[in-house]
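Input.
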Amino acid sequence: MVDSIKQLLAHAAKPTGEPPITLLLSNRFMKLYTGYSSWQELSRDLGVNTICEDELEKAIAAHNHLHSKIGFTNWTEMKCKAVDCYYEERPFGIVPHF
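Output.
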């Protein structure tokens, strides 16, 4: 019985799904890990108007001159770091904070 409860709690504590890009690329993340203070600044420099992973991947790859300011050489690297940071701050995933 105790093992079943432990397994249930362990499963419940695992994050499910993936947060939207707007939550991943928060102002805090942008300030800490890039040369930008917001997602809007990055999107302006990349010429991206929509939040679409395919567009971000292509835009970051096409703008080699921005890699030092972005702090990452590709979208996958940036997204992985953003996901890690997100779950460090919110280990239970997308839940409202009261």
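The chain has one domain: 18-89.
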